[in-house]
Design a protein that fits this description.
The chain has about 500 residues and is an alpha+beta fold. It is built from 18 helices and 18 strands.
Amino acid sequence: MIGIALGAVQLLPMAELGGLSSRHGGLSWEFATHWRYWPPNLLALAVPYPFGDVSDGTYRGRDIFWESHGYLGLCTVPFALVALWSDRRRAVWVLGALALLGLLFALGPATPVYRVAFAVLPGIKSFRIPQRFLFVACGALAALAGLGLTRAERWWSARASAGTSRITALHLAAAVVALTALDLGLTQPRQNPLSDAGAWLAPPAALRSLASEPVGRLYSMESSAVHQRAFRLAHGWSDLAPYRVARELIQPNANLFWSLPSPDGYAGLITREMEITWGAMSPTHDGIARGNYRAERDQLVPQGGFVRFLAMNHVTHVLAPSPVQSQRLEPMPSGSWARLYRVRDPLPLAYFVGRAVAAPTDRAAAEWIFSEAFSPRREVLLHAAPSASLPPAPEPGGPTLVEARVARPSNSEFIATIDAPSAGWLVLAESWYPGWTATVDGREASIVRANINQKAVAIPAGTHRVAFVFRPRSLARGAMVSGLALACLVASAAFAWRRRSLSDRA
Protein backbone atom coordinates (compact mmCIF):
# COMPACT_ATOMS: atom_id res chain seq x y z
CA MET A 1 0.00 0.00 0.00
CA ILE A 2 2.87 2.37 0.77
CA GLY A 3 4.26 1.74 -2.72
CA ILE A 4 0.91 2.53 -4.34
CA ALA A 5 0.57 5.68 -2.24
CA LEU A 6 4.09 6.80 -3.18
CA GLY A 7 3.18 6.38 -6.84
CA ALA A 8 -0.10 8.30 -6.53
CA VAL A 9 1.49 11.42 -8.04
CA GLN A 10 1.72 9.43 -11.29
CA LEU A 11 -1.13 6.95 -10.87
CA LEU A 12 -3.94 9.46 -10.32
CA PRO A 13 -3.17 11.56 -13.44
CA MET A 14 -2.81 8.32 -15.41
CA ALA A 15 -6.19 7.13 -14.14
CA GLU A 16 -7.69 10.47 -15.19
CA LEU A 17 -6.25 10.10 -18.70
CA GLY A 18 -7.51 6.53 -18.89
CA GLY A 19 -11.00 7.74 -18.04
CA LEU A 20 -10.82 10.24 -20.91
CA SER A 21 -9.56 7.69 -23.44
CA SER A 22 -11.45 5.24 -25.62
CA ARG A 23 -10.51 2.54 -23.12
CA HIS A 24 -12.86 3.96 -20.51
CA GLY A 25 -15.64 1.43 -20.02
CA GLY A 26 -13.54 -1.30 -21.61
CA LEU A 27 -12.33 -2.32 -25.05
CA SER A 28 -14.14 -4.78 -27.25
CA TRP A 29 -12.85 -8.36 -27.26
CA GLU A 30 -11.98 -8.06 -30.95
CA PHE A 31 -9.92 -4.91 -30.47
CA ALA A 32 -8.22 -6.09 -27.27
CA THR A 33 -7.05 -9.33 -28.91
CA HIS A 34 -6.47 -8.05 -32.45
CA TRP A 35 -2.72 -8.54 -31.99
CA ARG A 36 -2.47 -12.02 -30.54
CA TYR A 37 0.28 -14.37 -29.42
CA TRP A 38 1.31 -17.17 -31.78
CA PRO A 39 1.40 -20.31 -29.54
CA PRO A 40 4.46 -21.93 -31.22
CA ASN A 41 6.43 -18.94 -29.92
CA LEU A 42 6.43 -20.57 -26.48
CA LEU A 43 9.51 -22.38 -27.80
CA ALA A 44 11.24 -18.99 -28.09
CA LEU A 45 11.34 -18.69 -24.29
CA ALA A 46 14.14 -21.27 -24.23
CA VAL A 47 15.51 -21.34 -27.80
CA PRO A 48 16.87 -18.23 -29.53
CA TYR A 49 14.97 -17.26 -32.68
CA PRO A 50 13.44 -20.65 -33.61
CA PHE A 51 11.24 -18.95 -36.23
CA GLY A 52 13.68 -16.33 -37.43
CA ASP A 53 14.57 -12.81 -36.30
CA VAL A 54 12.66 -9.67 -37.17
CA SER A 55 15.83 -7.58 -36.97
CA ASP A 56 17.14 -9.15 -40.19
CA GLY A 57 13.76 -9.73 -41.83
CA THR A 58 13.73 -13.53 -41.40
CA TYR A 59 10.91 -13.83 -38.86
CA ARG A 60 8.20 -16.27 -40.04
CA GLY A 61 5.80 -15.99 -37.11
CA ARG A 62 2.19 -14.85 -37.31
CA ASP A 63 2.34 -12.21 -34.59
CA ILE A 64 4.22 -9.02 -33.75
CA PHE A 65 7.73 -10.18 -32.91
CA TRP A 66 8.61 -7.49 -30.38
CA GLU A 67 5.38 -8.08 -28.47
CA SER A 68 5.98 -11.85 -28.27
CA HIS A 69 9.74 -12.10 -27.87
CA GLY A 70 10.60 -13.39 -24.40
CA TYR A 71 13.86 -15.29 -24.76
CA LEU A 72 15.39 -15.94 -21.32
CA GLY A 73 18.57 -17.82 -22.21
CA LEU A 74 19.31 -21.51 -22.78
CA CYS A 75 19.77 -22.26 -19.08
CA THR A 76 16.89 -20.30 -17.56
CA VAL A 77 13.87 -22.50 -18.29
CA PRO A 78 15.68 -25.79 -17.41
CA PHE A 79 16.74 -24.45 -14.00
CA ALA A 80 13.24 -23.04 -13.43
CA LEU A 81 11.94 -26.59 -13.95
CA VAL A 82 14.56 -27.85 -11.48
CA ALA A 83 13.14 -25.50 -8.84
CA LEU A 84 9.57 -26.60 -9.51
CA TRP A 85 10.58 -30.28 -9.37
CA SER A 86 12.77 -30.26 -6.28
CA ASP A 87 11.73 -27.31 -4.10
CA ARG A 88 8.48 -27.55 -2.14
CA ARG A 89 8.58 -24.11 -0.53
CA ARG A 90 5.53 -21.87 -0.84
CA ALA A 91 7.50 -19.17 -2.65
CA VAL A 92 8.37 -21.63 -5.41
CA TRP A 93 4.75 -22.61 -5.91
CA VAL A 94 3.68 -18.96 -5.96
CA LEU A 95 6.28 -18.18 -8.62
CA GLY A 96 5.22 -21.25 -10.58
CA ALA A 97 1.60 -20.16 -10.45
CA LEU A 98 2.56 -16.66 -11.61
CA ALA A 99 4.56 -18.09 -14.51
CA LEU A 100 1.69 -20.35 -15.57
CA LEU A 101 -0.91 -17.61 -15.21
CA GLY A 102 1.25 -15.15 -17.13
CA LEU A 103 1.67 -17.63 -19.99
CA LEU A 104 -2.05 -18.46 -20.09
CA PHE A 105 -2.93 -14.76 -20.14
CA ALA A 106 -0.31 -14.11 -22.84
CA LEU A 107 -1.85 -16.81 -25.03
CA GLY A 108 -5.01 -14.69 -25.15
CA PRO A 109 -7.81 -16.24 -27.22
CA ALA A 110 -5.79 -19.45 -27.73
CA THR A 111 -7.14 -20.69 -24.37
CA PRO A 112 -10.39 -19.94 -22.48
CA VAL A 113 -8.48 -18.51 -19.50
CA TYR A 114 -8.05 -15.00 -20.86
CA ARG A 115 -11.62 -14.95 -22.12
CA VAL A 116 -12.88 -15.66 -18.59
CA ALA A 117 -10.51 -13.08 -17.09
CA PHE A 118 -11.62 -10.53 -19.70
CA ALA A 119 -15.24 -11.03 -18.70
CA VAL A 120 -14.76 -11.25 -14.92
CA LEU A 121 -11.67 -9.38 -13.67
CA PRO A 122 -12.04 -5.59 -13.18
CA GLY A 123 -9.71 -3.52 -15.35
CA ILE A 124 -8.67 -6.25 -17.80
CA LYS A 125 -10.87 -4.77 -20.53
CA SER A 126 -8.75 -1.62 -20.47
CA PHE A 127 -5.71 -3.45 -21.87
CA ARG A 128 -4.84 -4.69 -25.32
CA ILE A 129 -2.17 -7.08 -26.61
CA PRO A 130 -2.47 -9.90 -24.03
CA GLN A 131 1.02 -11.23 -24.80
CA ARG A 132 2.39 -8.37 -22.73
CA PHE A 133 1.57 -10.56 -19.74
CA LEU A 134 4.76 -12.37 -20.76
CA PHE A 135 6.57 -9.94 -18.46
CA VAL A 136 4.88 -11.69 -15.51
CA ALA A 137 5.83 -15.13 -16.81
CA CYS A 138 9.40 -14.13 -17.68
CA GLY A 139 9.97 -12.48 -14.30
CA ALA A 140 8.65 -15.53 -12.46
CA LEU A 141 10.71 -17.94 -14.59
CA ALA A 142 13.89 -15.92 -14.02
CA ALA A 143 13.31 -15.98 -10.24
CA LEU A 144 12.60 -19.72 -10.37
CA ALA A 145 15.79 -20.27 -12.36
CA GLY A 146 17.80 -18.57 -9.62
CA LEU A 147 16.21 -20.82 -7.00
CA GLY A 148 16.77 -23.86 -9.19
CA LEU A 149 20.43 -23.02 -9.71
CA THR A 150 20.87 -22.59 -5.95
CA ARG A 151 19.18 -25.96 -5.41
CA ALA A 152 21.44 -27.63 -7.97
CA GLU A 153 24.56 -26.08 -6.45
CA ARG A 154 23.64 -27.40 -3.00
CA TRP A 155 22.82 -30.83 -4.39
CA TRP A 156 26.22 -30.99 -6.11
CA SER A 157 28.02 -29.84 -2.97
CA ALA A 158 26.32 -32.51 -0.84
CA ARG A 159 27.39 -35.31 -3.17
CA ALA A 160 30.88 -34.25 -4.19
CA SER A 161 34.03 -35.18 -2.30
CA ALA A 162 35.09 -33.06 0.67
CA GLY A 163 37.69 -30.32 0.28
CA THR A 164 37.11 -29.17 -3.27
CA SER A 165 33.34 -29.78 -3.45
CA ARG A 166 32.25 -26.31 -2.45
CA ILE A 167 34.65 -24.59 -4.80
CA THR A 168 33.62 -26.87 -7.67
CA ALA A 169 29.91 -26.31 -7.07
CA LEU A 170 30.36 -22.54 -6.87
CA HIS A 171 32.42 -22.61 -10.04
CA LEU A 172 29.67 -24.52 -11.85
CA ALA A 173 27.02 -22.07 -10.67
CA ALA A 174 29.17 -19.12 -11.74
CA ALA A 175 29.70 -20.77 -15.12
CA VAL A 176 25.94 -21.08 -15.63
CA VAL A 177 25.44 -17.40 -14.78
CA ALA A 178 28.31 -16.38 -17.08
CA LEU A 179 26.98 -18.59 -19.89
CA THR A 180 23.52 -17.00 -19.57
CA ALA A 181 24.99 -13.50 -19.60
CA LEU A 182 27.08 -14.38 -22.67
CA ASP A 183 24.08 -15.99 -24.35
CA LEU A 184 21.85 -12.95 -23.86
CA GLY A 185 24.69 -10.57 -24.66
CA LEU A 186 25.28 -12.25 -28.02
CA THR A 187 21.66 -12.79 -29.09
CA GLN A 188 19.71 -9.77 -27.81
CA PRO A 189 21.56 -6.48 -28.54
CA ARG A 190 20.55 -6.71 -32.21
CA GLN A 191 16.99 -5.84 -31.14
CA ASN A 192 18.19 -2.34 -30.19
CA PRO A 193 20.31 -1.09 -33.10
CA LEU A 194 22.55 1.92 -32.64
CA SER A 195 23.13 4.72 -35.12
CA ASP A 196 25.76 7.43 -35.22
CA ALA A 197 24.29 10.23 -33.11
CA GLY A 198 25.57 12.97 -35.38
CA ALA A 199 23.98 11.44 -38.47
CA TRP A 200 20.72 10.58 -36.73
CA LEU A 201 20.22 13.98 -35.08
CA ALA A 202 21.28 16.01 -38.11
CA PRO A 203 18.36 18.29 -39.10
CA PRO A 204 16.38 17.06 -42.14
CA ALA A 205 16.75 19.13 -45.29
CA ALA A 206 13.22 20.54 -44.99
CA LEU A 207 14.21 22.39 -41.82
CA ARG A 208 16.49 24.64 -43.87
CA SER A 209 13.51 25.72 -45.96
CA LEU A 210 11.42 26.24 -42.84
CA ALA A 211 14.12 28.29 -41.09
CA SER A 212 12.98 31.49 -42.83
CA GLU A 213 9.26 30.74 -42.44
CA PRO A 214 6.85 31.45 -39.58
CA VAL A 215 5.99 27.88 -38.60
CA GLY A 216 2.88 27.02 -36.64
CA ARG A 217 2.65 23.24 -36.88
CA LEU A 218 3.99 20.69 -39.36
CA TYR A 219 1.83 17.76 -40.46
CA SER A 220 3.50 14.66 -41.90
CA MET A 221 1.29 12.70 -44.32
CA GLU A 222 1.57 8.92 -44.77
CA SER A 223 4.29 8.66 -42.13
CA SER A 224 3.20 5.15 -41.13
CA ALA A 225 3.36 3.91 -44.74
CA VAL A 226 6.83 5.44 -45.17
CA HIS A 227 8.03 3.76 -41.97
CA GLN A 228 6.68 0.39 -43.12
CA ARG A 229 8.45 0.80 -46.45
CA ALA A 230 11.73 1.56 -44.66
CA PHE A 231 11.17 -1.56 -42.53
CA ARG A 232 10.84 -3.69 -45.66
CA LEU A 233 13.84 -2.14 -47.41
CA ALA A 234 16.00 -2.51 -44.29
CA HIS A 235 14.94 -6.15 -43.82
CA GLY A 236 13.92 -5.32 -40.28
CA TRP A 237 16.63 -3.01 -39.03
CA SER A 238 19.80 -4.76 -40.11
CA ASP A 239 20.46 -1.73 -42.34
CA LEU A 240 19.55 1.67 -40.88
CA ALA A 241 20.06 3.60 -44.13
CA PRO A 242 16.36 3.39 -45.20
CA TYR A 243 15.34 4.79 -41.82
CA ARG A 244 17.72 7.71 -42.21
CA VAL A 245 16.16 8.41 -45.60
CA ALA A 246 12.65 8.19 -44.10
CA ARG A 247 13.59 10.78 -41.46
CA GLU A 248 13.29 13.47 -44.14
CA LEU A 249 9.52 13.20 -43.68
CA ILE A 250 9.90 14.27 -40.01
CA GLN A 251 7.47 11.65 -38.76
CA PRO A 252 5.42 12.17 -35.57
CA ASN A 253 7.58 12.39 -32.43
CA ALA A 254 10.76 12.91 -34.50
CA ASN A 255 9.74 16.58 -34.67
CA LEU A 256 10.60 16.87 -30.97
CA PHE A 257 14.31 16.58 -31.78
CA TRP A 258 14.17 20.04 -33.34
CA SER A 259 11.38 21.61 -31.23
CA LEU A 260 9.09 21.64 -34.24
CA PRO A 261 5.38 21.57 -33.26
CA SER A 262 3.15 18.89 -34.79
CA PRO A 263 -0.60 18.40 -34.34
CA ASP A 264 -0.35 14.65 -33.73
CA GLY A 265 2.06 12.16 -32.23
CA TYR A 266 2.76 8.52 -31.53
CA ALA A 267 1.45 7.63 -28.08
CA GLY A 268 -0.13 4.61 -26.43
CA LEU A 269 -2.85 6.39 -24.46
CA ILE A 270 -4.63 9.51 -25.69
CA THR A 271 -7.98 11.18 -25.18
CA ARG A 272 -11.00 10.16 -27.26
CA GLU A 273 -10.99 13.61 -28.85
CA MET A 274 -7.36 13.26 -29.94
CA GLU A 275 -8.13 9.83 -31.38
CA ILE A 276 -11.13 11.16 -33.29
CA THR A 277 -9.15 13.97 -34.88
CA TRP A 278 -5.70 12.50 -35.52
CA GLY A 279 -6.16 8.76 -35.05
CA ALA A 280 -4.45 6.32 -32.72
CA MET A 281 -2.47 3.11 -32.69
CA SER A 282 -5.60 1.28 -33.75
CA PRO A 283 -6.44 -1.22 -36.49
CA THR A 284 -9.88 0.34 -36.85
CA HIS A 285 -9.56 4.14 -36.41
CA ASP A 286 -7.37 6.39 -38.54
CA GLY A 287 -8.98 9.60 -37.31
CA ILE A 288 -10.85 12.12 -39.41
CA ALA A 289 -7.61 13.70 -40.68
CA ARG A 290 -6.27 10.50 -42.23
CA GLY A 291 -9.76 9.47 -43.29
CA ASN A 292 -10.18 12.53 -45.50
CA TYR A 293 -7.48 11.97 -48.08
CA ARG A 294 -6.70 8.97 -50.20
CA ALA A 295 -3.38 7.62 -51.39
CA GLU A 296 -3.19 6.79 -55.07
CA ARG A 297 -0.27 5.26 -56.91
CA ASP A 298 1.72 8.45 -57.41
CA GLN A 299 -0.15 11.15 -55.51
CA LEU A 300 -2.22 12.02 -52.44
CA VAL A 301 -5.70 13.39 -53.04
CA PRO A 302 -7.37 15.37 -50.20
CA GLN A 303 -11.13 15.10 -49.89
CA GLY A 304 -13.67 17.63 -48.69
CA GLY A 305 -12.29 20.07 -46.16
CA PHE A 306 -9.05 18.21 -45.34
CA VAL A 307 -6.67 21.15 -45.85
CA ARG A 308 -9.14 23.50 -44.15
CA PHE A 309 -9.15 21.11 -41.18
CA LEU A 310 -5.35 21.31 -41.03
CA ALA A 311 -5.51 25.10 -41.28
CA MET A 312 -7.96 25.40 -38.37
CA ASN A 313 -5.54 23.35 -36.26
CA HIS A 314 -2.76 25.90 -36.87
CA VAL A 315 -0.95 23.65 -39.36
CA THR A 316 1.15 25.92 -41.56
CA HIS A 317 3.23 23.34 -43.44
CA VAL A 318 2.80 19.81 -44.76
CA LEU A 319 5.37 17.16 -45.65
CA ALA A 320 4.34 14.28 -47.91
CA PRO A 321 6.07 11.36 -49.66
CA SER A 322 4.33 12.12 -52.98
CA PRO A 323 2.59 15.09 -54.65
CA VAL A 324 -0.55 16.39 -52.93
CA GLN A 325 -3.28 17.64 -55.25
CA SER A 326 -4.74 20.72 -53.55
CA GLN A 327 -4.92 24.37 -54.53
CA ARG A 328 -4.75 25.31 -50.84
CA LEU A 329 -1.23 23.88 -50.60
CA GLU A 330 1.66 25.85 -52.09
CA PRO A 331 4.74 23.78 -53.06
CA MET A 332 8.06 24.75 -51.48
CA PRO A 333 11.61 23.49 -52.04
CA SER A 334 12.38 20.78 -49.49
CA GLY A 335 15.96 19.88 -50.38
CA SER A 336 15.14 16.16 -50.31
CA TRP A 337 12.82 13.54 -51.78
CA ALA A 338 10.00 14.62 -49.43
CA ARG A 339 7.43 17.09 -50.75
CA LEU A 340 7.05 20.27 -48.69
CA TYR A 341 3.98 22.50 -48.87
CA ARG A 342 2.89 25.78 -47.34
CA VAL A 343 -0.74 25.89 -46.18
CA ARG A 344 -2.50 28.92 -47.61
CA ASP A 345 -4.34 31.05 -45.03
CA PRO A 346 -3.83 28.94 -41.89
CA LEU A 347 -5.77 29.99 -38.82
CA PRO A 348 -3.74 31.46 -35.94
CA LEU A 349 -3.15 29.67 -32.66
CA ALA A 350 -5.75 31.81 -30.88
CA TYR A 351 -8.49 33.90 -32.45
CA PHE A 352 -11.93 35.46 -31.98
CA VAL A 353 -15.11 34.41 -33.78
CA GLY A 354 -18.56 35.83 -33.18
CA ARG A 355 -20.79 32.85 -33.85
CA ALA A 356 -21.13 29.55 -31.93
CA VAL A 357 -22.92 26.41 -33.09
CA ALA A 358 -23.81 23.66 -30.62
CA ALA A 359 -22.51 20.23 -31.68
CA PRO A 360 -24.76 17.42 -30.38
CA THR A 361 -22.17 14.67 -31.00
CA ASP A 362 -18.58 14.34 -32.14
CA ARG A 363 -19.77 12.55 -35.28
CA ALA A 364 -22.07 15.44 -36.13
CA ALA A 365 -19.23 17.89 -35.44
CA ALA A 366 -16.89 16.00 -37.78
CA GLU A 367 -19.49 16.01 -40.55
CA TRP A 368 -20.09 19.74 -40.09
CA ILE A 369 -16.37 20.60 -40.01
CA PHE A 370 -15.80 18.85 -43.35
CA SER A 371 -18.91 20.25 -44.99
CA GLU A 372 -18.80 23.24 -47.32
CA ALA A 373 -21.23 25.08 -45.04
CA PHE A 374 -18.75 25.33 -42.18
CA SER A 375 -16.72 28.52 -41.94
CA PRO A 376 -14.08 28.35 -39.16
CA ARG A 377 -13.33 32.05 -39.68
CA ARG A 378 -16.84 32.96 -38.59
CA GLU A 379 -18.00 30.22 -36.23
CA VAL A 380 -16.92 27.65 -33.70
CA LEU A 381 -18.51 24.32 -32.82
CA LEU A 382 -19.13 23.93 -29.08
CA HIS A 383 -19.66 20.67 -27.20
CA ALA A 384 -21.85 20.33 -24.09
CA ALA A 385 -22.13 24.10 -23.67
CA PRO A 386 -25.19 25.50 -21.85
CA SER A 387 -27.27 27.41 -24.39
CA ALA A 388 -27.58 30.29 -21.95
CA SER A 389 -23.84 30.90 -22.18
CA LEU A 390 -23.86 31.40 -25.94
CA PRO A 391 -23.62 35.00 -27.06
CA PRO A 392 -26.28 35.97 -29.58
CA ALA A 393 -25.35 34.96 -33.12
CA PRO A 394 -24.30 37.96 -35.21
CA GLU A 395 -26.16 38.88 -38.33
CA PRO A 396 -24.83 37.63 -41.69
CA GLY A 397 -21.82 39.67 -42.65
CA GLY A 398 -21.03 40.32 -38.99
CA PRO A 399 -17.58 40.07 -37.35
CA THR A 400 -15.19 37.47 -38.69
CA LEU A 401 -11.96 36.08 -37.30
CA VAL A 402 -9.71 38.38 -35.30
CA GLU A 403 -6.25 37.08 -34.43
CA ALA A 404 -5.16 37.18 -30.79
CA ARG A 405 -1.68 38.04 -29.61
CA VAL A 406 -0.34 34.99 -27.77
CA ALA A 407 2.45 34.73 -25.22
CA ARG A 408 3.56 31.39 -23.84
CA PRO A 409 5.56 31.79 -20.62
CA SER A 410 5.75 28.00 -20.14
CA ASN A 411 4.48 24.70 -21.52
CA SER A 412 1.55 24.87 -19.10
CA GLU A 413 0.42 28.45 -19.77
CA PHE A 414 -1.00 30.51 -22.64
CA ILE A 415 -1.81 34.22 -22.41
CA ALA A 416 -3.90 35.69 -25.22
CA THR A 417 -4.74 39.35 -25.73
CA ILE A 418 -7.72 39.96 -27.99
CA ASP A 419 -9.63 43.00 -29.32
CA ALA A 420 -13.13 41.55 -29.72
CA PRO A 421 -15.44 43.59 -32.00
CA SER A 422 -18.48 42.02 -30.32
CA ALA A 423 -19.39 39.39 -27.78
CA GLY A 424 -18.14 36.04 -28.99
CA TRP A 425 -15.60 33.32 -28.39
CA LEU A 426 -11.85 33.13 -28.04
CA VAL A 427 -10.75 29.85 -29.64
CA LEU A 428 -7.41 28.27 -28.72
CA ALA A 429 -6.21 25.63 -31.18
CA GLU A 430 -4.72 23.45 -28.46
CA SER A 431 -5.94 20.02 -27.33
CA TRP A 432 -8.84 20.04 -24.90
CA TYR A 433 -8.18 18.53 -21.47
CA PRO A 434 -10.06 19.01 -18.17
CA GLY A 435 -6.96 20.08 -16.24
CA TRP A 436 -6.91 23.51 -17.91
CA THR A 437 -8.35 26.59 -16.22
CA ALA A 438 -9.01 30.02 -17.71
CA THR A 439 -9.40 33.60 -16.57
CA VAL A 440 -10.67 36.62 -18.51
CA ASP A 441 -9.15 39.83 -17.18
CA GLY A 442 -8.35 37.99 -13.94
CA ARG A 443 -11.86 36.59 -13.45
CA GLU A 444 -12.44 32.85 -13.63
CA ALA A 445 -14.05 31.68 -16.87
CA SER A 446 -15.38 28.35 -18.10
CA ILE A 447 -13.51 26.49 -20.83
CA VAL A 448 -15.76 24.78 -23.38
CA ARG A 449 -14.57 21.96 -25.63
CA ALA A 450 -14.64 23.28 -29.18
CA ASN A 451 -14.16 21.94 -32.72
CA ILE A 452 -13.90 18.42 -31.24
CA ASN A 453 -10.45 18.85 -29.69
CA GLN A 454 -9.89 22.55 -29.01
CA LYS A 455 -10.73 25.08 -26.29
CA ALA A 456 -13.00 28.11 -26.30
CA VAL A 457 -13.89 30.80 -23.77
CA ALA A 458 -16.80 33.26 -23.99
CA ILE A 459 -15.71 36.92 -23.99
CA PRO A 460 -17.60 40.23 -24.20
CA ALA A 461 -16.77 42.96 -26.68
CA GLY A 462 -13.59 44.93 -26.06
CA THR A 463 -9.94 44.29 -25.28
CA HIS A 464 -9.31 41.37 -22.94
CA ARG A 465 -6.49 39.33 -21.48
CA VAL A 466 -7.32 35.62 -21.43
CA ALA A 467 -4.99 33.29 -19.51
CA PHE A 468 -5.04 29.50 -19.86
CA VAL A 469 -3.16 27.56 -17.16
CA PHE A 470 -2.78 23.80 -16.80
CA ARG A 471 -3.42 22.84 -13.16
CA PRO A 472 -4.88 19.32 -13.05
CA ARG A 473 -6.48 18.40 -9.74
CA SER A 474 -5.40 14.80 -10.23
CA LEU A 475 -1.75 15.87 -10.08
CA ALA A 476 -2.30 17.98 -6.95
CA ARG A 477 -4.17 15.18 -5.20
CA GLY A 478 -1.59 12.62 -6.25
CA ALA A 479 1.25 14.82 -5.00
CA MET A 480 -0.54 15.21 -1.67
CA VAL A 481 -1.02 11.45 -1.26
CA SER A 482 2.57 10.70 -2.31
CA GLY A 483 3.89 13.40 0.02
CA LEU A 484 1.96 11.99 2.97
CA ALA A 485 3.16 8.47 2.13
CA LEU A 486 6.76 9.67 1.93
CA ALA A 487 6.39 11.49 5.26
CA CYS A 488 4.97 8.34 6.87
CA LEU A 489 7.82 6.28 5.44
CA VAL A 490 10.47 8.69 6.74
CA ALA A 491 8.75 8.92 10.13
CA SER A 492 8.56 5.12 10.40
CA ALA A 493 12.23 4.78 9.51
CA ALA A 494 13.18 7.47 12.04
CA PHE A 495 11.06 5.81 14.73
CA ALA A 496 12.62 2.41 14.02
CA TRP A 497 16.13 3.89 14.10
CA ARG A 498 15.37 5.73 17.35
CA ARG A 499 13.93 2.62 18.95
CA ARG A 500 16.92 0.55 17.91
CA SER A 501 19.35 3.16 19.27
CA LEU A 502 17.59 3.15 22.65
CA SER A 503 17.60 -0.65 22.68
CA ASP A 504 21.35 -0.75 21.95
CA ARG A 505 22.06 1.69 24.80
CA ALA A 506 20.02 -0.38 27.21
